């Protein structure tokens, strides 16, 4: 392989670095100053709580308005996570969110991170990076859309893919406050895995279907379009419904679920609604959504199915890790919950 070509491909150009820095700077400033609901996060082990300013939808709308179509991001260098690693190891902070978790295994600590909620200039980096990833995904999709309009190749499959993803991303920002009770925020430390996942993996691999459709024309019959929309809607209903039920339950454990008082185990775990059907129905909804993003590409290639295939692997792995965490945290209450709700993700199957 031509080494010069390889180096050219992996070393960011001045332009791309400037775009990335501008984008991140914009997010830092917009996240700090634009108005938005300030939501208290989960109670940490030491009883403290972080606060999140949920103004992502505003920041995104403003960014899209400012940039128009076609802002590209470039590969994030590992120096970000190395800085996190070094700063985390040096931290003397004893609070749950900043206390260093050092196992001594350099690769493990660098990959999984040292601190739970590292901050830079009062910006919560975890919240910040995931926001950057979701916005980057939409910006890449919009530029793909612009290219297909420019080339005169816009077709039903591209429109469906674009609509579904845009709805999913906008929904993320409309319900951004629900993120504050998710596994990533409350349990995952910030290391290479999350930074790379947020800044590179989400925008660049979740948009593969769009890239693929630019080069491959797929004609979808009306019946297929309708079936695809139904899968998207069911996926959305389950995904949003389950996440919302858990979120509102955490705020008020007496709140009615599907019109009835909730079934609660040990005063802490919800066993009604979606959470009474499977222990991670929200993952099922997300998987159906992922499938609906790829189905517009037809079945001639596996390439556009990268995202749903990856998500099946990720969510099964994550569900196992979350179960282990919950089993340790809730002990006999969790055993009782598993007895009452035996299905992990897909009722009567898994
Ligand atoms: P969850 O939102 O399911 O959060 C898991 C936590 O919820 C548990 O650790 C526990 O935390 C609490 N919990 C679990 N069961 C119950 C219950 N029955 N009653 C009350 N609380 C409960 O997990 P994630 O953060 O992984 O996922 C959030 C969403 O994000 C999902 O819809 C997922 O599909 C999506 N996602 C998407 C990804 C993608 O790449 N597209 C990647 C990862 C996630 P506690 O200790 O607070 O009780």
How are the elements arranged and paired?
Layout: H1 3-10, H2 14-33, E1 37-43, E2 49-54, H3 56-67, H4 79-90, H5 106-112, E3 119-120, E4 123-124, H6 125-151, H7 156-174, H8 183-186, H9 192-205, H10 208-215, H11 222-251, E5 264-265, E6 269-270, H12 274-277, H13 281-294, H14 306-330, H15 332-340
Antiparallel strand pairs: 1-2, 3-4, 5-6
Helix pairs in contact: 3-7, 6-7, 6-9, 7-10, 7-11, 7-13, 11-13, 13-14, 14-15
Protein name: Delta(14)-sterol reductase
Organism: Citrus sinensis
Total beta-strand segments: 6
Strand content: 5-15%
Fraction in helix: 55-70%
Strand numbers in spatial order across the main sheet: 1-2
The mean pLDDT is 85
For the sheet with most strands, the description reads: 2 strands, antiparallel
Protein name: Delta(14)-sterol reductase
Organism: Citrus sinensis (Sweet orange)
Structural features, described:
It is a single chain. This protein is mostly helical and 350 residues long. It starts with a helix and ends in a 10-residue tail after the last helix. The longest helix is centred in the C-terminal third of the chain and has 30 residues, at 222-251. It is globular, with a radius of gyration of 21 Å. Helices cover 61% and strands 6% of the residues. A hairpin with a 5-residue loop joins strand 1 (37-43) and strand 2 (49-54). Helix 7 (156-174) packs antiparallel against helix 10 and helix 7 (156-174) packs antiparallel against helix 13. The strands form 3 sheets. Strands 1-2 form a two-stranded antiparallel sheet. It has helices at residues 3-10, 14-33, 56-67, 79-90, 106-112, 125-151, 156-174, 183-186, 192-205, 208-215, 222-251, 274-277, 281-294, 306-330, 332-340, and strands at 37-43, 49-54, 119-120, 123-124, 264-265, 269-270. It is built from 15 helices and 6 strands. It binds NADPH dihydro-nicotinamide-adenine-dinucleotide phosphate (NDP). NADPH dihydro-nicotinamide-adenine-dinucleotide phosphate is lined by residues 42, 182-184, 186, 239, 243, 246, 269-270, 275, 280, 282-283, 286, 311, 314, 318, 322, 325-326, 329.
